[in-house]
Write a structure and sequence with these properties.
Length: 471
């Protein structure tokens, strides 16, 4: 745990008692603060009280007693409308912040020689893979590495800091909205495509949230920016004009005179005086496809930015084991391979997996994002058959009509059974791909639960066939 500094003997209201809120409360108390916890769910309040936290009804409380509000990132700050705790805090002049901001202030309060290196990663897609990959590169190069934020542990739940540590942090747009003083040594902005627009009031608000990751960078810091989409390309151009930090563009589709890029699976380093070919990514088993080549370019650049050698960075790329729920092979029965890409919660994320296979049996559906799967029409010819589940099934069926054969499966376990039967009957080497292009909340608590249900359904198939599903 990282004890929070700067709030000694002050009282902080904590709203939202999931992983982030409870971890922040523990870290605040460890640093000498007093806390008042609340959640709208009685079970969450009971769990907090059972742990010994002071549970205070923030609806009825006098907000003049609070010095800050620690808001969990899932709680609306501005859109669709501010949460009632936000309105009460603003009316009382109480500062609103998140756990990443508490971490940032704690780092900034430490003596310079005790401050760790910080690598912060954001983007619409690929954040988790890139964060884990950077963490792997740093750890395999011998650095004392802690990975967290929007992946794994909340940042304040990580081991306490020292001057030789490296914190590799995945940051969502929700977290960035609540962060104002974080100063990363290296920032990675992978890509931007429309997502979470209801929470940010539209595309401009979403982009503005992502841009906050660069707020406090200056001379000696490095900004690593994907330039394969127009929004990030514009951001790269704009902050290059500011001419403060070191800026390295990254790409998985074009050669550049500066930065790091991949072409046809070959990684090139153009951060020095000449372009150097540094790695054959086709040999990196856990980094297939163009989207992963961008992730690799970003991770390599981030590692180099904090002084990791070329050879150590490349070795890390080749030994990365991959992440669960991101194009993860969870089993194989006969000629049929099952790929778990449950993390694909929007169409742009699903495109990354769908583009990697010439033909596949596609399991899709859940809670659709704006635009549904319209943007994937160029990939519909690759679909051997689609098995639709959840709330989006009917809408997706309309989009796919006349372009791909559709089965209305309804539930994930039924979709797995039906997809396997059709794939096995083809007699060909086949891929059953769970890449839902949807959020999971109609049938599952999160994408991890959905991915584990897919794995369980595959294992159940294997058991019924009297075989083992070989990963």
């Amino acid at each position: 745990m990282i004890p929070v500094r700067g709030f000694e003997d002050k009282t902080v209201a904590v709203f939202g008692l999931g992983r982030t809120g409870l971890t922040a409360a523990r870290a605040l108390i460890a640093g000498g603060a007093k806390v008042a916890l609340w959640d709208e769910k009685p079970a969450s309040r009971e769990a907090a009280a059972a742990e010994g936290f002071p549970v205070v009804d923030l609806q009825a409380a006098d907000w003049r007693q609070f010095d800050a509000l620690m808001l969990s990132p899932g709680v609306p700050l501005t859109h669709p409308k501010p949460h009632w705790t936000v309105e009460k805090a603003k009316a009382a002049g109480v500062e609103i912040l998140g756990d990443v901001e508490l971490f940032a202030r704690t780092v900034n309060a430490a003596p310079v020689h005790k401050r760790p290196k910080i690598i912060a990663i954001t983007g619409t897609n690929g954040k988790s893979t890139t964060t884990a990959l950077i963490g792997h590169l740093c750890a395999s190069a011998g650095r004392d590495t802690r990975i967290g934020g929007n992946i794994g542990l909340g940042v304040l739940g990580l081991e306490d800091m020292h001057g030789g540590a490296v914190y590799v942090l995945e940051l969502s747009s929700y977290q960035l909205d609540l962060t104002s003083s974080l100063k990363p040594d290296a920032v990675v902005l992978l890509n931007i495509s429309p997502d979470h627009l209801d929470r940010h009031g539209g595309m401009d608000g979403y982009i503005a949230a992502k841009r906050r990751i660069f707020l406090n960078q200056g001379k000696g810091d490095t900004a690593i920016i994907g330039v394969d989409d127009p929004w990030c390309q514009q951001i790269c151009t704009e902050i290059t004009a500011a001419n403060r930090r070191t800026i390295w563009p990254i790409s998985a589709g074009k050669a550049m005179g500066r930065g790091v890029y991949a072409l046809q699976g070959v990684l090139y380093d153009a951060t020095g005086e000449r372009v150097v070919e540094v790695a054959d990514l086709l040999r990196a088993r856990s980094l297939p496809g163009r989207h992963n080549w961008q992730n690799a370019a970003a991770a390599y650049a981030a590692a180099r930015a904090i002084g990791i050698s070329v050879s150590d960075a490349v070795d890390g790329l080749m030994t990365f084991p991959g992440l669960a729920h991101r194009m993860e092979t969870v089993g194989k029965l006969g000629k049929v391979r099952f790929v778990n890409d449950s993390k694909a919660t929007n169409a742009d994320a699903a495109r990354q997996a769908m583009s990697s296979y010439p033909k596949f049996y596609w399991i899709a559906g859940g809670v659709a994002k704006a635009g549904g799967i319209e943007d994937l029409k160029d990939l519909f010819p690759r679909i051997a058959k689609a098995y639709l589940i959840g709330e989006a099934a009917n809408v997706f069926a309309v989009t796919l009509a006349g372009k791909a054969e559709v089965k209305m499966s309804g539930t994930l376990d039924r979709a797995v059974q039906q997809a396997y039967a059709d794939a096995a009957a083809s007699g060909e080497d086949a891929i059953v791909l769970l890449s839902p292009a949807c959020a999971s909340f109609d049938q599952f608590s999160d994408f991890e639960a959905r991915g584990e249900a897919f794995r369980a359904a595959v294992n159940a198939l294997a058991g019924g066939a009297g075989k083992a599903a070989v990963a």
